[in-house]
Structures are given as C-alpha cells and as structure tokens.
Design goal:
Elements lengths: L7 H22 L5 H10 L4 H28 L4 H17 L4 H17 L5 H24 L6 H26 L7 H9 L1 H19 L9 H31 L8 H27 L28 H20 L5
InterPro entries: Memb_transporter_dom (IPR049453)
Subcellular location: Membrane
Main location: membrane
Amino acid sequence: MVEQQAPWLQVVKMLVAIVVSWVASSLLLGTELPIFAAIAALLVVAPSVHQSIGKGLERSAGVLGGVVLAWLASLTLPTGPLVVLAVTLVAVLVARLLRLAPMAANQLPISAMILLALGAGAGPLFGFERVVETLIGAACALLINLVVVPPVQHEPAERAMRETAYAVADAYDRVAAALASHDAVDGERLLADARALRAHVQRTRAAMDALEESTRLNLRARALRERIARDERLLLTLTVLVNRVIGMSRTVADRFDASVADDPIVHRVGTEARRIAHGVRMLVDRHALEDGRTTTMPALDGPALTTPIAVPQPHPTHWVLIGALLEDVRQARESLEADGAGE
C-alpha cells in the first residue's frame, strides 16, 4: 500500500511550527541552536489536534527519559564515542522494558544520544534546558495546529463513501443482468466481485475513523456532527447491502440456470435489484446535494423501490433459488428504506 503525501497545508504548518519554535526557544532560553524545539515542532504537528496533544505528551516523555539517562551517564561515566553508543543501546532496552508508546520509545535513545554528543557533561542545566526546549516546540506546534485551519478529514471520507456506494450499486446491477441472462452465467466471477466489496467497506470504515479522529478537540467539527452521523448510518446501510448482494451472488453461483430467466418472479427480483442499485446511487447523490455538491446522476422513471414481491405459489423446481433471492432482496429493501432511499 502506497502512503499518501501530506497535503500542502500540513507541510506549511510544519514549516511555520519549526520557525516559530526555533525563534521562541532562542528568545526565551537564549539557545543558539534550539534543535530539540525544532524536532518537537516537526513531530507534533499532526493531521488532528487530538493527535498533536498525544504526540506532544509522548515526545516530551521520551525526551525527559533520554535527558535523565544521559545526565546520569555523564555524571558516572567518562566521555567518549563508546559511551555514547553504550548509552544509546541501554536507552533502547529501557524503552522496551518500560513498554513506552512508539514515539516516546524512539525519542528516548535519540535524546540521550544527542545530549551526550552535544555535551551533557556541561552541567545539569543543559539537560533541563533541553526539556524546556522540547516543551516549547511541542506547545508552538499545538498552538499552530489549533489556529491555522485545523484539518478535518471529511473529503476523503466522503470520497470513499461514494466510491463504495457506487461499487455496491454496480454489484446489484450485475446480479440483475445475471438473472436476466439466457446464457451461462460466470457465477464464480460474480461472487468474487461481490466479495471484493468488503475491501471497499473496510477502506470506508478507515476513512470514517480518520474523520472521527480529526474532529476531536477541533472547533471546526461542530458544523459537521450531523453529516458525520448521517454518513455513519449510510455506511451501516452499505454494509448490510454488501452482505445481501454477496448472498444473492452466492445463490446465483450455486443454483441459477438459464431456464428460470423467464420466470416472472425471477424477473421481478432482477428489476428490484436494479432499483436497489438506483436507490443506493440516489441516496449518495441526495447527500451530495444536501452538502452543496453537484450530481450528474440520470433520473430513473418510477419509484426507487417498488412494492414487495408477492409469490402466489412456490416454484416447483427452483423454489430454494427464488426463496433465497427474495429474502436477500427483502433485507436490502428494508435497509435502504430505513435510510430514506425509498422516499
């Protein structure tokens, strides 16, 4: 999986945080090279305010541990490259034994190594100043993340939701086409395509989790609460629809043959599958209109969902096939109607 680059806004915020923390540390502490402040600012500026606070606490804990370890080493051991190497290795082991968070575990040996290399033996104030320097850098980064347009990861979540919804709709269209086919149906391919929708749902779930994370302690998130709750309901609906279309695809793969393509009940099921597909697209497009975004979905004559399918009597041969399809259609209809697609 290829990691996405940080957006330019995030890069600019990192640059500003580094400069501000450098200047602030120089003015407050009189440090010529406030390296720890710059590193803290670089690491603490995160995609969300909540993450920035967490990173700041973790990094500060790691720096404090590294400073203490380096200070003790400078008081008891002679200076030299082997001492720096030994203390760095000990710091890695200490971080592992204490089960520190990843950022704190990485920062502890880094801080110890840098402090010894820069001259921790210069006195106890040297280590204390590095702690203060780190706190200044973390505070500057957090302040900038609060003030400079705190990012809310809503667009990636909306994009993932829309892609998933249209993929689900396409799957129902494929089932409808298979039910109307008088030729042999590649049931295994149909089922594999339906099962692939689970990956779409997982990606959308991850995008929604990132959105939720970005709204914590974020003042801009208040206006999005209703939209986030609505999108959570939509994701739940899509999850149900994915399970149902997988069931329909499995039924087609296991039991369908072209001889039932002309059966009126099977024909109704196919029609309903197409209307479910349309209902899904209509639902996400309606959300787009509510959010002020444009949509180009063509209109479909008739209601999104028709009345429930009535079966006068079971099919003498394919009653299992038809019964399974009808049950999946029923549950899909109920899920869509609960989310307002049938309005």
